[in-house]
Amino acid sequence: MLSILMAQPAENRPLIQLTKVDKGGSATTPLVISTEFADGDRGCKIVFRSYDKLGKPATYETGSFKDNGNASGVKDKHDICVSTAAGCTRNCGFCAVPKAELGFERLLTSTEIEAQVTSTISLRNKDNALPNVVGLMGNGEPPDNYKNVIPALQHLFEQHVPIDRVTISTIGESSKGINALADAFAESDIPVKLQFSLHVANNAKRREIIPGKRTIEEIMYDVDRYAEVTGQPVKFNVVLMETDTFTNASVEDAIALASLLQQPSFFSGKPIARRLKMSAYNPIPGLPFRAPNQETRDLFVKTLRDHGVSEIKTFKGSGIDIDSENGTGGFACGQLRATTRRAVDQSEAQK
Ligand code: SF4
To answer: How far is the CA of 306 from the centre of ligand 1 (A)?
Structure first.
């Protein structure tokens, strides 16, 4: 029996109890060591700690965002941003996770992944007033940990935990992981979608911001296969960003992106639907990246449209824009881990 314990519950509510033991080991006990709120009740960062069967600790974060009736017209929902690792071994240049003081501890077990969903629903949306939308977009590269991601999601579905859909984010480096996920969720009643963090449709430029060995063309084969096996169109994520020496927001970048998105399937050669999700970079203290100015962003979108891309979903930012400089930051995409050291220190001090 796994129980979810609360050191500092936001409210005195019972949490969902799971009955599950990780394969080959004893049950871990995820402990919520801190909850931080932002933008009223809209955003919440929950920090967990637990131990694997070898006794190795992990501290990891979950984001919860309520999009209920805000001015942007986003449909009412409860976004749960789940981590699949405590930290990350990939070293994307624009991401706060690999640079966070806490560092990489380990991949999370299936129970630890699952507990983030159940306890966040219990804490934040117990009456299911909002549909729960789960994104595996926190710390870690989910296909690197497919052996735990798959049983975690399957068990959530078997237990009828109220989830509307799941989106798994990837930078595309693990072909084995992406293909295993596609095969596992081909027949799923609850949609499990893939989001490919492409960012730029040029191999040399992409290599500057995302380390790895695979070309965009090799990754496209796997993500197109995912779409065809599962019947779920893949979302292509592009965050517009620049430094003094790098940009992914030039007119040439927009033309290359438009061309890539309109190519037939790299897997089957058939026509294929691809969705584009775009946002501007959320600045992270200590990193050189920034959002291109509005004029550059508008020209990028216009160029995409002029070159045949009609379906573009744009976001103001990823996550909630919290002031990272006053110490309450860390809710926006890639930033969940940035301030977790503080939560750990506070938890230790209260023992
Ligand atoms: S963007 Fe994702 S894969 Fe890259 S370092 Fe950050 S958490 Fe890891």
So the answer is: 32
